[in-house]
Write a structure and sequence with these properties.
- The complex is a heterodimer.
- Chain A has ten helices and ten strands.
- Chain A is of the alpha+beta class.
- Chain A has a domain at 13-82 and 171-325: Alpha-Beta Plaits.
- In chain A, strands 8-1-10-9 form a four-stranded mixed sheet. A two-stranded antiparallel ribbon of chain A has the order 2-3. In chain A, strands 4-5 form a two-stranded antiparallel sheet.
- Chain A is globular.
- Chain B folds into two domains: 71-210, Formate dehydrogenase/DMSO reductase domain (Formate dehydrogenase/DMSO reductase fold, Up-down Bundle), CATH 1.20.1630.10; 214-366.
- By secondary structure, chain B is mainly α.
- In chain B, 67% of the residues lie in helices and 2% in strands.
- The chains are: A alpha+beta, B mainly alpha.
Chain lengths: 353, 384
């Protein structure tokens, strides 16, 4: 039951919540370096959990029109268009493109081989074709326009003179972190939010009365109130699936295994291995986020491998569970309450006039 | 098939891009996650270069908020006032009764019940599912200030309700069942009044913990002083009731309450507005800033009137009114300041970045120290 780290610090949440013989803690490892931004996770989540639509908005910022995690979006694929760091401007991750080739996208020879088929198609892919949109676009320097690095539609090798763009796309499927120290769970006044035997955090929709306290309590801005319903909703880590040994819908649907589901300890070692590999390959800006049991929320049940600073993806750089300071808050309130009582005594003890 | 209109729900404003002209919108709105954005705290917002906060340099995901702003409506801001008013006036009633000032007792008891009723309405009305308000009584959770507040308010409500109903005793007939009630009510009312007064300081200060125990940047940062602001504001509003309702010869304690409460409130508010770095900014800028400045002026005016106008019934009443309005303005200012801080990612990212930088510097310093010691003892031969 409640121990010295119940408010803050490393902890295994399920036994701390009172589970005897709890199964291993389950979680997500989302490796953004292999995310292709397909949003299959968003769709699979909505379908399995019967989550209503989130409005059909065009946000006008990137290919992301979901915007963020809400009551009606329990997975959110962030999409960032970013001038690359090779030139050293725009980001503080110099070397994001260091060591990458800067010439044409492939040599003519490899392009011929790559595009070649067993049968003669009657075309020679090595021959430069008509003026190429990619190359043409790259030469446009009109103020206010920027070449976004859209891939060419032509065969590889036909566009030998196409430059490498200095643009990169970052994609990340965001989700509830299922914190070790969950602010939403701590502040819930009805007990609607609870800790499952898998160490995850779930809202019981038949209990929640829509007080809304969990929403500002979440340091990641995940949980949200559904407008036409009044109650708070968020990712359940497919509590109804994992209890039967199934993989959560989003991880099941992910075509690149960017979203990996499993025992948290196993995922953490897998992530450390992947990070090491990426660093070996020269991707120096790769970093893990939310994996550390010593961080402000005691480590996340759903953690990430990122390619830039967390705030670029809309994540807080150093989240701390608000209830870490709660004992101190109650003490301060107690002192203020005593000051009130003392004021009354002083006010009424004075001489009568 | 349903008509199209029926399927269209109101557009969630949090999903649409932030308006470009929105106050606090900086380069980050345009540059999005793609680049750094520099912004000057407080500059160019109408009040000149008074800010002591250095220019904020941060990145974000297309300028979108990171933490969610509270979904609470003005009901909760209003409850902060009515809850404080209930606490302050029940303390006034207890003091008045104990020292033989019936006007203070009567006004305090009746105001406490009125404010309590309003509080209950505001709290239940703000729920997403008001019919489920009883679910609040399923658990008692010290980690949830709202759960604690529910129990505090319930205890206070029963006691303050009994005290206020007892005020009706003199108008009951002297015979029969109601006559029995007429004789029983006064002692019950007195007991309720003191019970309510015992709970009142908790009622007035737990709301500060309620706001501070969130990830809303400016509320959380204000947690050390927020209870003083709310305690002071509750005392000042209770004093305001006394000044409004009691004749001059009974209002002396209310004047002293006003002075002490205002001092507590102004001290706390000053600390909140000046010592939290960039997180003090939302309390100085825009509407929250105007509300808090108005609250300060009205408090000062109310205290001045209460002290200087002690012979005039009219000046005292006006001072009381001024103190009540001040309390209302202060509560709305604090409420809106927090909401503003949640809507701008600057207030989430910049302080957390500062925290990380400070921690990194600390680690670097301790590393330097541990590597220095063996060097120094080795080369210089001086054991440290």
């Amino acid at each position: 039951m409640a121990g010295p780290n119940s408010f803050y610090g490393p902890l295994d949440p399920a036994p701390d919540a009172g589970y005897v013989d709890a199964p291993p803690r389950m979680g997500f490892f989302t490796d953004t370096s292999v995310c292709i931004g397909c949003k299959a996770c968003e769709v699979a989540c909505k379908e399995w959990n019967l989550v209503p639509d989130d409005g059909f908005n065009l946000l006008g910022t990137s290919y992301d029109n979901t915007g963020g995690l809400t009551a009606n979006s329990w997975r959110h694929v962030a999409f960032i268009e970013q001038p690359a760091a090779g030139s050293g401007h725009g980001t503080d991750t110099p070397g994001a493109f260091a060591g990458m080739p800067t010439g044409p996208s492939a040599s003519a020879h490899t392009a011929v081989v790559a595009a070649g088929t067993s049968q003669d198609t009657g075309t020679d892919p090595g021959v430069p074709a008509a003026p190429d949109a990619l190359a043409a676009a790259a030469t446009i320097t009109a103020p206010g326009t920027q070449f976004l690095g859209m891939p060419g539609a032509d065969l590889p090798g036909r566009t030998m003179d196409a430059p490498r763009s200095d643009f990169r796309w970052l994609m990340m499927s965001n989700v509830c972190k299922h914190c070790t120290h969950a602010g939403c769970l701590d502040v819930c006044p009805t007990g609607a939010l609870f800790r499952t035997e898998f160490g995850t955090v779930v809202v019981q929709e038949d209990i929640c009365n829509g007080c809304g306290y969990c929403i500002p309590a979440c340091p990641y801005g995940v949980i949200d109130q559904r407008k036409d319903d009044g109650r708070a909703w968020k990712c359940t880590l497919c509590y109804d699936r994992i209890g039967d040994g199934l993989t959560p819908a989003c991880a099941k649907a992910c075509p690149t295994e960017s979203i990996q589901y499993g025992e948290l300890d196993e995922l953490r070692s897998r992530a450390a291995h992947r990070l090491e590999k990426l660093h070996e390959q020269g991707v120096a800006e790769a970093r893990l986020y939310g994996h550390d049991p010593n961080d402000g929320v005691g480590g996340d049940g759903a953690f990430f491998l990122l390619l830039d600073e967390p705030e670029v993806y809309g994540l807080p750089p150093d989240p701390v569970v608000t209830t870490r300071d709660l004992p101190d808050m109650w003490k301060r309130a107690g002192v203020a309450a005593l000051a009130m009582a003392a004021t009354i005594v002083v006010s009424f003890a004075g001489r009568r006039r | 098939m349903r008509p199209r209109e029926e399927r269209e729900r109101p557009r969630d404003e949090r999903l649409s891009p932030p308006p470009a002209g929105h106050e606090g919108s900086g380069l980050s709105r345009d540059a999005g996650g793609a680049s750094r954005s520099a912004r000057r705290g407080g500059k160019g917002r109408g009040r000149g270069d008074r800010s002591m906060v250095p220019p904020a340099d941060f990145r974000s995901y297309y300028g979108r908020p990171i933490v969610k702003p509270p979904v609470w409506h003005y009901d909760i801001a209003a409850y902060l006032f009515t809850g404080g008013l209930a606490a302050g006036s029940s303390l006034l009633a207890a003091g008045g009764d104990a020292t033989g000032r019936p006007a203070l007792r009567r006004a305090g008891r009746i105001t406490a019940l009125g404010a309590l009723t309003a509080s209950t309405y505001f709290l239940i009305n703000d729920l997403g599912r008001p019919e489920r308000f009883v679910n609040m009584l399923r658990v008692a959770k010290p980690t949830s200030p709202m759960s604690m507040g529910t129990w505090i308010l319930s205890a206070f409500g029963a006691a303050a309700g009994a005290a206020a109903v007892a005020e009706a005793a003199p108008i009951l007939p002297e015979r029969g069942v109601l006559g029995l009630a007429r004789r029983l009510l006064p002692p019950v009312g007195t007991a309720g009044q003191y019970a309510a007064a015992a709970v009142a300081p908790a009622l007035a200060t737990y709301t500060a913990v309620l706001l501070a125990d969130t990830a809303t940047p400016s509320w959380h940062a204000a947690y050390p002083e927020l209870p003083y602001v709310f305690a002071g504001s509750a005392l000042a509003s209770g004093a305001g009731v006394g000044l409004l309702a009691a004749p001059c010869d009974q209002a002396g304690p209310a004047r002293r309450m006003a002075v002490c409460g205002a001092a507590l409130e102004l001290y706390g508010a000053h600390r909140v507005e000046t010592t939290k770095g960039i997180l003090s900014e939302p309390y100085r800028d825009g509407r929250p800033g105007r509300l808090l400045r108005a609250g300060r002026l009205l408090t000062a005016a109310g205290v001045a009137g209460a002290v200087l106008g002690r012979r005039s019934r009219v000046v005292s009443a006006l001072s009381g009114l001024s103190l009540l309005t001040a309390s209302l303005a202060t509560r709305f200012g604090i409420f809106e300041g927090g909401v503003a801080s949640a809507k701008d990612p600057k207030y989430t990212v910049v302080p957390q970045r500062e925290r990380l930088a400070a921690r990194a510097a600390e680690v670097a310093a301790s590393d330097a120290k541990t590597t220095d010691v063996p060097e120094g003892s080795g080369s210089g031969g001086i054991g440290v």
